[in-house]
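step=encode ok
step=design start
structure_in=
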């Protein structure tokens, strides 16, 4: 390691960002507004405030303020697990024999195991400040629910989590982490909500979906006094909070004169990717620098690469506002053999707009090749990555191999969003050689898209 760049770059406390960055402020074409499904008109602050905390509703609607100060209490909490290190992947570079320089921002250094805590603590803070009793949410594999439980415990808020039933049953460990932090966890669909009962009647024996759990969580929030709904991805407010990832990364890059050529992130609802690229995208939008951005999604849930840019429901029960996004249709559920996460049917409106303008590229990868990359990374770099994060690893390795072929010394940066300790059932499938790839047919996607709302 003769290079001057340390293996791990940690910023000093005095160098940490004090504000979040809102990329919408620098976008010429703003992301399309959320619409009220009943009127077809943009959601107002008052309407949004029925579902979300007031301050978060304001952030959701704010397309103009570039920097929003991070409240002191949140900065204090961030100190428990931030800064996250920017790691120079020397071992990976050497193993690949690539002339490329590879960096990753590691967000797995907290008990929830992912970047989701960055937004969970912000959302819990604003709920507490508003004097609420608690919040409701959905969780799929459980990372978001875990992060939110930790944040709610810190601020002494009640936390009701609707967990997709198949995960509730198959991932007892995350469920128990949530309960340890004090959350009430209900398998979804459940008979505790009207929408849950309807879905159970229509699809008896269903193992649930994220879209369905969202509907239940929203209903639980609006039907309980003193509760609001919070969401861990997709929303513009979540990208705003997650900009802490990109701001720290950019500060570390600037300090060591690192100039990334390619910035890569996995994309489920778009929060980590949006957070990582936001400040860099800001520079690109202002004409100060150029970068290639790559969103990586599963071939079994390809919203950017095969979806349609249209208004759609954010949830199965169609109780949420409509969002314009790249979507596979709100009824789309990835094949049951899909084990790698990133299963949401739509994509952040901010990222959808940037992608539509050609400012971001997207590619989809098959899960066996994702787990191959995960295993390789674990063996050479030491860290056991989350399957979601491994989509980005796959693309970073592919880019680095291209550099080996062409002799280009590119600088590749990717987001390593979390650890895979709770994903060992998926790893087990891969290790046993029983994991396979499923790519939805054009017909299946067209069928799902036929149910887009007519405006
Ligand atoms: C939730 C999650 C993702 C995907 O969500 P985004 O909103 O697209 O970032 C990626 N990685 C990990 C570890 C996650 O928990």
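sequence_out=
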């Amino acid at each position: 390691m003769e290079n001057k760049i340390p293996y791990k770059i940690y910023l000093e406390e005095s160098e940490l960002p004090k504000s979040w960055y809102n990329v919408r402020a620098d976008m010429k074409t703003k992301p399309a507004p959320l619409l009220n499904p009943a009127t077809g008109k943009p959601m107002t602050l008052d309407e949004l405030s029925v579902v979300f905390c007031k301050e978060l509703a304001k952030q959701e609607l704010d397309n103009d303020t570039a920097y929003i100060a991070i409240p002191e209490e949140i900065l204090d909490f961030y100190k428990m697990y931030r800064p996250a290190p920017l790691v120079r992947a020397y071992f990976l570079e050497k193993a690949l024999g690539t002339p490329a320089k590879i960096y990753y921002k590691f967000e797995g250094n907290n008990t929830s195991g992912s970047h989701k805590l960055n937004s969970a603590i912000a959302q819990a803070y604003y709920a507490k400040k508003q004097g609420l009793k608690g919040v409701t949410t959905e969780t799929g594999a459980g990372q978001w629910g875990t992060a939110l439980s930790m944040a709610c415990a810190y601020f002494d808020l009640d936390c009701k989590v609707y967990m997709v039933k198949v995960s509730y049953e198959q991932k007892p460990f995350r469920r128990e982490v949530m309960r340890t932090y004090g959350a009430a966890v209900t398998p979804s669909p459940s008979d505790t909500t009207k929408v849950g009962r309807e879905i159970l009647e229509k699809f008896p024996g269903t193992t649930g979906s994220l879209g369905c759990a969202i509907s239940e969580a929203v209903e639980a929030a609006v039907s309980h006094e003193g509760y609001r709904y919070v969401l861990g991805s997709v929303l513009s407010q979540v990208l705003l909070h997650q900009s802490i990832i990109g701001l720290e990364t950019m500060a570390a890059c600037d300090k060591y004169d690192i100039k990334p050529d390619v910035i890569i992130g996995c994309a489920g609802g778009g929060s980590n990717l949006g957070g990582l690229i936001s400040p860099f995208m800001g520079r690109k939008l202002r004409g100060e620098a150029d970068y290639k951005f790559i969103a990586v999604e599963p071939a079994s849930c390809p919203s950017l690469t095969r979806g349609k840019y249209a208004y759609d429901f954010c949830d199965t029960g169609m109780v949420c506002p409509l969002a314009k996004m790249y979507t596979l249709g709100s009824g789309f559920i990835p094949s049951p053999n899909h084990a790698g996460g990133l299963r949401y049917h739509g994509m952040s409106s901010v990222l959808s707009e940037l992608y539509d303008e050609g400012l971001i590229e997207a590619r989809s990868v098959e899960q066996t090749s994702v787990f191959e990359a995960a295993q390789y990374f674990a063996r050479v770099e030491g860290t056991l990555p989350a399957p979601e994060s491994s989509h980005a690893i796959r693309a970073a390795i592919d880019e680095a191999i291209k550099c080996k072929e062409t002799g280009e010394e590119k600088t590749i940066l990717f987001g390593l969003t979390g650890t895979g300790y709770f994903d060992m059932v998926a790893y087990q499938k891969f290790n046993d050689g029983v994991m396979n790839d499923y790519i939805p047919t054009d017909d299946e996607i067209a069928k799902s898209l036929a149910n887009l709302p007519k405006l």
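step=design ok
step=annotate ok -> The mean pLDDT is 95.
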